[in-house]
Automatic annotation (TrEMBL), chains A, B:
Segments forming domain PurM-like C-terminal: 184-331
Entry superkingdom: Bacteria
InterPro entries: HypE, PurM-like_C_dom, PurM-like_C_sf, PurM-like_N, PurM-like_N_sf
Coiled-coil intervals, chain numbering: none
Gene: hypE
UniProt-recorded name of the protein: Hydrogenase expression/formation protein HypE
Family the entry assigns: Belongs to the HypE family.
Ranges where the PurM-like N-terminal domain occurs: 60-172
Length: 360, 360
């Protein structure tokens, strides 16, 4: 090391040798960790993610959060939905709400989200800006900050426009214990409202089909609804929560049935499927019970708490349509059986793969 | 709801109607949230991520971690490196080590990672399995569990083989306060070892050029090294830490200089650039100081602590080559100036974009 201070160019004489960059599209250098990356963060992401919350927006490499002693929930999801924009939402608010909901299903109060972007070279900055704004708005609406992020760029043809990953951190309040292993035969199965809307909204845009009524995605954060439910039952009688996303209501119910070692008996006539969803699904050959939702939850609740929990749900905007749709039973563990509108019963099977790819 | 129990098919009579699936490649259904998704998780990811740790592997939608009251660090990175396998590592261990290192740079002890996969339809399961195994092994080596994950599949041509996102959670020990805002003029700048190896390793495979000596990636977790450094200085004289990944040593130093409002004077002759890296960079027209590293750190340390911190670093495998390479100065804030081997000085500028795309 030199002992004398280095006296190079006087900064006052130093002029940025780079032209102002007026590109309207993502170039490879936006993912390079250099000046272009910094410009993207400072001019596009930070303003979008700091929408008036005054948090200063996300930090660069890692963020610091303060937590009480105890349990935290951690979750991650990547979002690859196509189209990027659809009735009722876009990939941005989906990426915020979806990860918030995964946290909420463990009873956690979300306290921060990360955002990782994989961008295709040539993506319009205006489009990226709209999606970032949408994420910021959704995070703001949910009261959860986007605390740190990352951006990578891949060459044209190596990705499809953009993919977003979000991870989330939540604090599980003391005394809250929600998980499929707590489900018991006799538990009521409650759904928070209409099913099938998100999947049909995506499909209606993708197929370019007009079903008469526009079905909009139900994309919404559910941690407020969960908090209301937990407040209505202080004695741990909400046994399990699940958001029926990919695979829909059926996948959510069967996953819990398998984890808990119980069967589930569904009253199919009680399941709220809007007429518009039913007719679109009929046209497309989809089962509305296996179509993704992005703003609904399924709860397994001790019957002694059902009345209080239902009342709390119905008092919350995201749970206004809450109804009991079935019951956990000791028969046929790991399976769901439905009583149809005709009074007959059938085994309800999950899809092998998916009805509709890139739904979220 | 029916009051009587549903008596459908006796499960004992029920036979899985699906054939055993012998596919060797990823199909769209692996991302659908149905039976194929479950098979992928149970047969490929869980065994890879539960490599003898007995943690039961990652949980499905969210994981629960127990933390002390205080500060946690949260970080995320997506990994899009090509080729997926390179001398010294692969996208899997990079995804584990890279996010661990982001946490370590805030002084945090990593306690859990998430893993999000975006897979291209047609990807060989064997290749995915190798990468998952590598992630599990790296996580095991670092003593940090992969606690939850997510898998999406996009159609052939909509992604380039696979992309991995990891997010990480770490606990910042009480009393640890590391951040660029703490850097002061006079701080020594220490690098933990040779620079430029990761980028040259990638480039040598990608360009198919034989430089005589095989340069291997330095991919490694640095939280152990950081813990040793922090233990050597109980009085908060390690002011800032940064892992010089994209943009290399220069980007790391300039980012800290800009955040801290100090200048940095580097003694270029003191910077450890292996001969093999220097000659490869010369051939390729790259600046070794701007080539990515994946197992090195830069530390800004109060000079009164330099001796103890250096000794601690040199006693750790990942810091054996630690040296002082420069100093924070009050002149030219936000800029790095190098004293060359010829005794002249020059302003060191960051790249506009990147020298080498998809390096991590």
């Amino acid at each position: 090391m030199p002992d004398e201070p280095v006296t190079a160019i006087d900064p006052a004489d130093w002029v940025c040798p780079l032209p102002l960059r007026e590109t309207k599209r993502i170039v490879m250098g936006h993912g390079g960790g250099g000046i272009l990356s910094e410009e993207l963060i400072e001019n596009l992401f930070l303003p979008a993610f700091d929408s008036g919350r005054g948090t200063g927006g996300p930090s660069r490499d890692s963020a610091v959060l303060t937590v009480p002693a105890g349990r935290i929930a951690v979750s991650t999801d990547s979002y690859v939905v196509q189209p990027l924009f659809f009735p009722g939402g876009d990939i941005g608010d989906l990426a915020v709400n979806g990860t918030i909901n995964d946290l909420a299903m463990s009873g956690a109060t979300p306290i921060g989200l990360t955002a990782g972007f994989i961008l295709e070279e040539g993506l319009e900055l205006e489009l990226l800006g709209r999606i970032a704004q949408s994420m910021g708005k959704a995070a703001d609406h949910a009261g959860v900050g986007i605390v740190t992020g990352d951006t990578k760029v891949v060459g044209k043809g190596s990705a499809d426009q953009l993919f977003v990953n979000t991870a989330g951190i939540g604090v599980i309040p003391e005394g809250v214990d929600v998980g499929p292993e707590r489900v018991r035969p006799g538990d009521d199965v409650i759904v928070s409202g209409n099913v099938g809307e998100h999947g049909v909204a995506i499909m209606s845009v993708r197929a370019g089909i007009d079903f008469g009524t526009v079905v909009t995605s139900d994309s919404a954060p559910l941690h407020g609804l969960v908090a209301a439910m937990l407040a209505a039952d202080a004695s741990g009688r909400i046994h399990a929560l699940r958001d029926p996303t990919r695979g829909g209501l059926v996948a959510a119910v069967i996953e819990i049935a398998r984890s808990a070692g119980v069967g589930v008996a569904l009253d199919e006539a009680a399941i709220p499927v809007p007429e518009s969803v039913a007719s679109a699904c009929g046209f497309l050959g989809l089962d509305p019970l296996q179509v993704a939702n992005e703003g609904k939850l399924v709860a397994f609740v001790d019957p002694s708490a059902t009345e209080a929990v239902l009342a709390a749900m119905r008092g919350h905007p995201e749970g206004a349509g809450a109804v009991v749709i079935g019951r956990a039973v000791s028969e046929h563990p790991g399976m769901a059986v439905g009583r149809t509108a005709f009074g007959t019963t059938r085994v309800i099977e999950r899809e092998l793969g998916e009805q509709l790819p890139r739904i979220c």
